[in-house]
Structure of Integrase core domain-containing protein:
Amino acid sequence: MIITRGANRASFMWGSGVTRSTHNNRIERLWVEVGSQYVRAWRAFFYRLEQLHGLDASNPHHLWLIHYLFLDDINKDGKEFRYGWNFHPVSGTAGSPADMRLMGQVEHGMYADDYADVHPGILSSYLGVSGAVRQRSQGETGAGQDPEETGEDDEEPWQDSADLREAALAELQERIQADNEKHFNHEPVKVPRHYSPFDTDEALNAFNEGILGVIHEGIIPFGFDVRDEEWVDEEYPTIGHIPGGRGRTKGYDIPLPVHIWKPRAVRWAQGLHVLNRLKDIIESSEGYNGTGI
């Protein structure tokens, strides 16, 4: 993030514990908007899958299935939020973020650069000059020195520019990390493991075929609390709960409209049903013959 956007931006919590909250209000407002517009709803939905529909958050295969079924939908929501955010009016400026970007391009033009993804302030601070500093021999000033008189061997062998750029970026990342260590006030968040339950392409293809068939046929499996007859005594919930507070006894409620979130719960049940059946077939060494899903 620092390489791409530069240091001391409002998109990162810079400074001491005293100043962080007062100097980062813009990114804090953006985080609130991201959460309220779509992230909290997905979070509440995943809690619902745990509570009602068989999700085991400690099972890496279940987390893989979450990615398989819903990652495209989550990315779509993120893109829709980004579009809305880029065109919303910004107080104290003329127009939206998209307007400001366009006017900047009109005023300053556009150019292609190998380091286009690196913030110019970072380039200036860490690179400064083009190429590595040359180490000169004793008595050599570099002012009109004849290369034949230096007594040095030939220059280093030619290296591919892509390799040099990759090495330079790696070194740049290490230097930025070292210089900004004081701003990192906690260990990186541990990401739960998720990996495919299938060891072969054949098994994965069988899963793809199975879930497409179940969805196409409109099969809704029993035992996952997604069928209408499993909710005879009460209605399917329209509110999701995100636990919080000490002991996770508090939290807040999030609206989850049935017409949006129940079909997704059904899709989860279908995916988990196919996954469980196929794993049973594989583990029983019966092989896959295209049936029994």
User: Anything to note?
Assistant: The radius of gyration is 28 Å. The chain is about 50% helix and 5% strand. The mean pLDDT is 79.
